[in-house]
Amino acid sequence: MNTGLVLSGGGVRGVAHIGAIKALEEYGIHPSHIAGTSAGAIVGALYAGGCTWKELLDFFKTTQIFSVSNYARNKPGFVDTEKFYDTLKSYLPKDSFDALRTPLYITATNLLDGTLKVFDKGELIKPVLASAAVPGLFAPVPFKGGYYVDGGTLNNFPVDLIKMHCDQIVGIYVNPFEKMKMTDLKHAHNVLERAYHIMVANETVLKFGDCDILIRPERMAEFSMFSLKNMDTLFNLGYKSAKATLKKITKSIQTT
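Predicted structure:
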């Protein structure tokens, strides 16, 4: 049976993907195809490349996103996305989709013509960086005539990229979309995050029905997309949510 794994964007909340992957492995679920966007593209690429969940967590904990050395100069963003190339290369020494153990599909948005680009072959690392380049914070990535930013801008939950290849789909969605109060929107970054989630929510919710197993970790609204302080908590929330979901599904199968 072919099993697809779909990983949403979500910034640092993508660490919850890693906890969920650990739980999936404990239940013997290993994907035959992976699709990801933004943080999900990073997790997906590393996982497809053979990294263990411990190595995935290590990547997020040791990568200094907001180090002064990574600040962008003469580029439209605060952080120079391309400066993370060498970091990813140390985990993915063969910079090619063809070198991955599991077929991978990721999305990025071309600012020049406003279209969504799906990457699944050829050079790997620059498309991954492009998919994760949140507009306004990370500088766009030039690549083969395009100028790319976060794939989540147009497709934040790319179930559609792999559902035709798979008998079942496991989706992990780490973006919150609960009702908020005015007091939750005190700062500019809170407003920007909220506007981003509103933008992607409409097309995303429609795809939940395509998932045979949908994992939505709780409490995601408590954590900023860009806060690096709560990685262990995010990992544990992803793990616990996935375990609870899988336990419920297993129990349902046993009682039918």
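Summary: The chain is about 35% helix and 15% strand.
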